Recover the amino acids of this structure.
């Protein structure tokens, strides 16, 4: 049986936030679906990982996704809907805090 969290605890939330804060400039790229098809990571991301923003490749406003975050959630076996429900950032700001 697959063991999955049904909600993110504080420890997990902090872990994700720390991970995001450590993203490099390149890892902070948010891509629209069209650019993702051409220049993305090659994995189809859940709609739950998209949020409204600006594509860092074509400059279009709309739904964008961040591959680094998506990859990290996959690596940590975190369900996209649970992540979405947790209200954590789905697209990453350019500023490195
Ligand atoms: Zn684009
Ligand atoms: Zn991707």
């Amino acid at each position: 049986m697959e063991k999955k969290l049904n909600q993110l605890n504080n420890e997990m939330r902090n872990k994700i936030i720390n991970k995001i804060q450590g993203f490099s400039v390149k890892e902070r790229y948010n891509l629209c679906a069209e650019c993702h098809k051409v220049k993305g990571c090659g994995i189809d991301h859940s709609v739950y990982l998209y949020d409204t923003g600006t594509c860092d490749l074509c400059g279009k406003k709309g739904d964008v996704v961040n591959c680094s975050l998506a990859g990290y959630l996959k690596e940590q076996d975190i369900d996209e809907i649970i992540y979405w429900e947790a209200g954590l950032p789905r697209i990453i700001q350019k500023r490195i805090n």
About this structure: The chain has a mean pLDDT of 93. Helices lie at 10-21, 33-39, 67-75, 80-86. Strands lie at 31-32, 51-54, 61-65.
